[in-house]
Write a structure and sequence with these properties.
The structure holds two protein chains of two kinds. By secondary structure, chain A is mainly alpha-helical. Chain A is built from four helices and no strands. Chain B has one domain. Chain B has 19 helices and four strands. In chain B, the strands form two sheets. In chain B, strands 1-2 form a two-stranded antiparallel ribbon. In chain B, strands 3-4 form a two-stranded antiparallel sheet. In chain B, α9 runs antiparallel to α10 and α9 packs across α12 (about 300-320). The chains are: A mainly alpha, B mainly alpha.
Chain lengths: ~120, ~500
């Protein structure tokens, strides 16, 4: 017999038992709802409104820009730590130049964001 | 070891990218950007890339790898680069006056078109599935934004959102497929996949991972080239996006995605693997029928062209079904795929140039009934549009006819008679709906509330060049067909089929 069959049985028994007991209490249990009982936090702060509010797209912009420039920094670290190893197999101008190109492209992106007003809150 | 000389091979890509950055900086630098300068610099970038591409094409005789095998430098890639550059130039020229009319004045448009073209060009020469995926995403992300560039218009925003959600989903499938292929054979190189299949006894029967991987790849690519049953997004997105963007999507995106699909299929997957042939057969047949039958009942010319673009993807897939098991050289007619991609680009850009004239108070109105009386008012435009539509239908003596002839020849020579019959049925249906706008133009009266066509020199120039090219290469296709065939045969260097 497959050694996992007992495990399957255990899972099956757990499912059946939980369903049976939930079903029994659903069928026999009394239900007298009051306003307080059905509140989200029965013994906490009364809710003041829906949590699904619309929020300003500005937050989204900040998040995207943060990700962008955060990732830029993340890419810098492995390059910096491996710099001397890279010099063994590549010419120095290439190793430095590659990062210069990367940062240059990002700089133009930053310039674009600046000019389009992405960094202005209002 | 890195060889700086290899940078030459991505010269065209670098040129497009650098010019895109230049245009971007120019566009945001000044309060009132100069649209003409922006356009001029963008076109200069495309022209520079075309020249560099031509130089590369002459310099590289034997296909070779570059960047540690991530990129394939071969005629196939060069040919696709030309198609992409043409499509981008056409879209830019059409957009010049169009964007002003629909009152979209954003600095992002021209740079985005260039960035998208950059991604497309890389896609055509990607020899590694990872590079292929990244370039596909570079292309797709730009196109999502371009679709919604007219964000005041509900249809445009809807198109962008639909394309984005569905496209992201399809990208997931593609990435999953790449992961499974890697899991199955331990490499993401397309040529390595080909070598793996070439070993006796290796196939999807003994390796379920690669079977799943290829199925997922087909789903992902099927979405990008709008093949049935993954074509559902096409009509809505094509109709909702601004006309120049639709033109770019129908030509550039389709050509790039199809080139990548052809490379994967022809180099790595087809050949001995009869299972893939069957899958491809079914997809091709479905695409041809879906596209052509769907186009029959459209009242909007743009939506009709969207369905017809699905049908054209089907014809291209039909040729791929005819890929030979013995080697590409066995079926040189497959070069028709590249020729047809070029022909489709030229004639579609021509048709969309005319469509871009139909705006009313800043809103597009491309119902077929608006074409009424066009032949009386603007006989030259009506004639040019008729030629482009007849070419799409595959009527001689046009480029579309020659292309379609080669596609059918490729399928039949490859022994795929059944799918060629389906293709012929699709073509026959096609004649009907391509003729309908022509009938309206020449025989129907003008609509009572007619609007003056917003003709402009740039789009008229595109239309003129496209029409002349369709006729010239329809009459004397010889040398172009040869280049296309040689370009496709360069794929044979990578093994596989």
């Amino acid at each position: 017999m497959n050694p996992y069959v007992p495990v399957a049985f255990a899972i099956l028994i757990a499912i059946v038992f939980s369903l049976v007991f939930v079903g029994l209490s659903y069928y026999f249990g009394p239900r007298r709802p009051t306003k307080t009982k059905t509140a989200v936090y029965e013994c906490g702060m009364p809710p003041v409104g829906t949590t699904r509010q619309r929020f300003s797209v500005k937050f989204y912009m900040v998040a995207v820009l943060f990700l962008l420039f955060d990732l830029e920094a993340v890419f810098l670290y492995p390059w910096a730590t491996q710099y001397s190893t890279l010099l063994d197999s590549f010419p120095g101008t290439f190793v430095l130049g590659e990062m210069a190109v990367f940062l240059g492209v990002l700089f133009i992106g930053w310039f674009y964001c600046l000019k389009r007003g992405a960094f202005q809150w209002d | 070891m890195f060889d700086p000389g290899e940078l030459n091979f991505i010269g065209p890509e670098i040129a497009v990218f650098v010019f895109a950055l230049l245009v971007l900086v120019h566009d945001v630098m000044f309060k009132q950007r100069n649209a003409t300068i922006s356009m001029g610099v963008s076109l200069m970038g495309l022209a520079t890339a075309a020249v560099l591409n031509l130089l590369n094409m002459q310099a590289v005789d034997v296909p070779r790898e570059a960047f540690a095998g991530a990129m394939a430098v071969d005629g196939f890639g060069f040919f696709l680069n030309f198609i992409v550059l043409l499509a981008a130039a056409g879209a830019l020229l059409i957009s010049h006056d169009f964007l002003r009319r629909i009152d979209v004045d954003v600095p992002e448009f021209n740079p985005l078109v260039l960035f998208v073209a950059f991604g497309m060009m890389l896609m055509g020469s990607a020899n590694d599935l990872i590079l292929l995926f990244i370039s596909l995403e570079v292309m797709s992300l730009g196109v999502y934004v371009l679709c919604g560039i007219n964000r005041g218009e509900l249809a445009s925003a809807e198109a962008a959102l639909k394309y984005f959600v569905m496209g992201a989903f399809a990208s997931g499938f593609l990435l999953m497929g790449i992961a499974f292929v890697y899991g199955g054979i331990g490499s993401t190189r397309i040529s390595a996949v080909a070598q793996w299949f070439a070993i006796e006894g290796n196939g999807i029967a003994g390796n379920p991972l690669i079977g799943v991987g290829v199925a997922l790849l087909l789903v992902g690519f099927g979405f990008k080239v709008a093949a049935a049953p993954f074509h559902m997004w096409t009509p809505d997105v094509y109709q909702g996006a601004p006309t120049p963007v639709t033109a770019f999507m129908a030509t550039g995106v389709k050509a790039a995605a199809f080139a990548a699909l052809s490379r994967v299929l022809l180099v790595a997957l087809l050949g001995q693997n009869l299972e893939f042939h069957t899958a491809l057969w079914l997809i091709a047949a479905g695409t041809i029928l879906m596209g052509n039958i769907g186009a029959l009942v459209q009242d909007d010319l743009k939506r009709m062209l969207a369905y017809s673009s699905i049908g054209h993807a089907g014809y291209l897939l039909m040729a791929l079904v005819g890929a030979p098991a013995a080697g590409l050289a066995d079926n040189p007619r497959l070069g028709g795929i590249l020729f047809y991609l070029l022909a489709y680009t030229v004639m579609t850009v021509g048709a969309f140039a005319v469509l871009s004239f139909f705006t009313r108070d800043g809103v597009e109105d491309t119902r077929i009934s608006r074409l009424g009386g066009l032949a009386d008012r603007h006989p030259a435009v009506a004639l040019a549009l008729s030629i482009c539509l007849l070419s799409l239908a595959g009527v001689p003596p046009t480029m579309g006819f020659v292309g379609k002839f080669y596609l059918f020849a490729a399928a039949i020579e490859g022994g795929a008679i059944g799918i060629a019959v389906v293709g012929a049925i699709g073509g026959a249906i096609g004649i009907y709906y391509y003729l309908r706008p022509i009938v309206v133009m020449y025989m129907h009266p003008e609509p009572a509330d007619r609007v003056e066509l917003a003709m402009n020199p740039a789009a008229l120039g595109v239309l003129g060049v496209a029409t002349v090219a369709v006729l010239v290469f329809g009459l004397v296709p010889g040398s172009l067909i040869e280049v296309a065939q040689d370009s496709l045969l360069s794929l044979a260097a990578w093994g596989g089929v």
